[in-house]
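Hey, I'm writing a tutorial for new members on how sequence and structure tokens pair up, and I'd like a real worked example in the thread rather than a made-up one. If someone can provide the structure for the chain below, I'll link this post from the tutorial.
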Amino acid sequence: MKKIYLPILCATALMCGSYEASAQDDITMPPPPSVEHHADFQKMEKHHEKMATKLAEKLNLNEEQKEKAQEMRKAARQKMKPLLEQMKELRKKMDTLRQDNMKEFENILTPEQKEIFAKIKEERKAKFEKMMKKHHHGHHHMAPLPME
């Protein structure tokens, strides 16, 4: 039972990574906000602790198991820190490439096409913000879109 937390943590990280990868396939879709930009980071941490507590209750863990599980979670977070920093740097590089690509694309457009494209981007931005607001119940502060 002690080893159940690490696979759960890894699965969560993989799901987040797959969302990030799928979001970056569409050049007009901004990447998910990084943890540093997430206004509710502490709330998210509390949620994870609540989930761990509920799981411990469902598994009927004793105090020693709960302490070991918490130590495992802390150790896993420490191991992931450098990877998260690498991801942050890669995100910056990807955002720069995405912005450069967008500028190159816009350079081949006529003035009329640029106007239409600007409207399309605004519509997509509004749609995305509406989706994010619905998903995050209005508590989300977005980083600027890479296409701006």
